[in-house]
Amino acid sequence: MTRAGFERVYREIFSFWDGIPEEDRDYICRNSDVFTYPKGKNIHDGSECSGVILVHSGSLRLYMMSDEGKEITLYRLHKGDMCMLSASCVINSITFDVFVDAEEDSECYVISGPAFAAAAERNPAVKIFALETAVGRFSDVMWVMQQILFMSMDKRLAIFLSDESARTGSDTVTLTHEQIARYMGSAREVVSRMLKYFANEGIVEVLRGGVTILDKKRLRQLTL
Amino acid sequence: MTRAGFERVYREIFSFWDGIPEEDRDYICRNSDVFTYPKGKNIHDGSECSGVILVHSGSLRLYMMSDEGKEITLYRLHKGDMCMLSASCVINSITFDVFVDAEEDSECYVISGPAFAAAAERNPAVKIFALETAVGRFSDVMWVMQQILFMSMDKRLAIFLSDESARTGSDTVTLTHEQIARYMGSAREVVSRMLKYFANEGIVEVLRGGVTILDKKRLRQLTL
Questions:
Q1: B130, B116 Cβ separation under 8 angstroms
Q2: Which chain A residue is nearest to residue B145, measuring alpha carbons?
């Protein structure tokens, strides 16, 4: 992409853009690149600073992984969202590792971590932006934690199905039980059991590779 | 406490102190107060901005609570530590509620949230300090989450007992099973069962209102 192309995107996204010197804007653009990731591709595994990732199309999934390979989805990033946790060299106080995968075919703009960090050192506004983005995700993660630790499984699954349906604008959630379990940080068996219960109640219909919501009203009641 | 007293404390704690104007230093000191909290007292319940809390003596416990009153300890604050999550008005992107209790009789310096926020608006260095403090705690919380979600109970309990013993400098951890469970985000029954197993193995001795570590080497092996 051209310098002008990056500039156009960054001016929209970065509240600090017009407040920093022309040479720093130039520096950030010169240290930017466009990447396309196929669905399922691991983009970041915590082992190095992968840079600041900005989603242009598709979606990314951010998750934690245990030594045994168990995953907990923390949040997903869609068009216009930015991943700062993949840029551990920008924010020193982040000492935990996260993984990032492309959930669909995705196109991303990636700013080199050291370059963004250098710009942040020179411009407090850039540093504040980076930290505020990270702290905002802290809130997301706390919400996930609250869900996992405190909420009953029927409520969690109902919320997940409602959110998915609202997000895609479809009554059918085209995810396997295995995928739903992974997004929810649960086990496939638990999700299957609960979906069977929902189906018996006439709330959903379980299809091959998907779940169709039949009774929106009762599903909504379960989320309360 | 006098203006000079606060000034002495803040110069030690706040890396930004000498870099902000005298009038802002004065403003922060004038909006500071000393509070003493008896053991067990709830200091912050998320309903309002309680300000920036600096622990001078004693210790505070930060936790999440479910609708049903189940608690998960996120971390504890000791002498010199600072609580930024209790000052929701300073960091807008924090949208979750935490609770803070005095775990021992504690003396704290509290800076009014709105005053600190105003100083942060005028001085990027203050804002960066606040955000970095919050992001640092993000790492602590992720560690707790990893423990709770991924780690086996024997390992978690061994780590908890080792840490407690190291912290207090005593082989006896004077906490009830109920208290240990609360700190670990687990259930009393689970902790009691695991302590019984440790006792049968000769690793600990379970006393009334406490646990004495008998075999440090084996306890340490369990933490690995």
A1: yes
A2: A145
Distance CA B65, CA B73 (A): 9
- Residue B44 · residue B86 · CB < 8 Å: yes
ipTM of the modeled complex = 0.71
- CA–CA dist B121, B116 (Å, integer): 9
pLDDT tens readout for residues A16-47: 999 999 999 999 999 999 999 999 999 998 88
A97 three-state secondary structure? coil
How far is residue A82's CA from residue A115's CA, in Å, rounded to a whole number?
A: 16
Q: Which of B85, B82, B68, B59 is nearest to B141 (CA)?
A: B85
Q: Provide the total of helices (H) and of strands (E) in chain B, helices listed first.
A: 8, 11
Nearest of A143, A202, A106 to residue B64 by alpha carbon: A143
In contact, B39 and B47? CB cutoff 8 Å: no
A125 neighbourhood in chain B, CB within 8 Å: 124
Closest residue by Cα to residue A164 from A176, A177, A155, A173: A173
Measured CA to CA in angstroms, residue A202 lies from A214, A223, B129, B136, B215 at distances of 7, 16, 53, 46, 56
Section A36-65 average pLDDT: 91
Q: Mean pLDDT score of chain A, rounded to an integer?
A: 88
| Cβ pair A142:B66 closer than 8 A | no
Spatial separation of the C-alpha atoms in residues A95 and A15, rounded to whole Å: 26
What residues in chain B have per-residue pLDDT under 50?
Answer: none
Chain A: nearest CA to B75, how far in angstroms? 14
The Cα A113–Cα A105 span in angstroms is 23
Q: Do B146 and A66 meet the contact criterion of CB atoms below 8 Å apart?
A: yes
> A98, A140, A149: best mutation site toward chain B, by most B Cβ within 10 Å?
A149
In DSSP notation, A42-88 reads: EEE-SSS---EEEEEES-EEEEEE-TT--EEEEEEE-TT-EE-TT-T
**SS3 assignment, position A99:** strand
Distance from CA of B23 to the nearest CA of A (A): 21
Dist CA B19 CA B37 (whole Å): 32
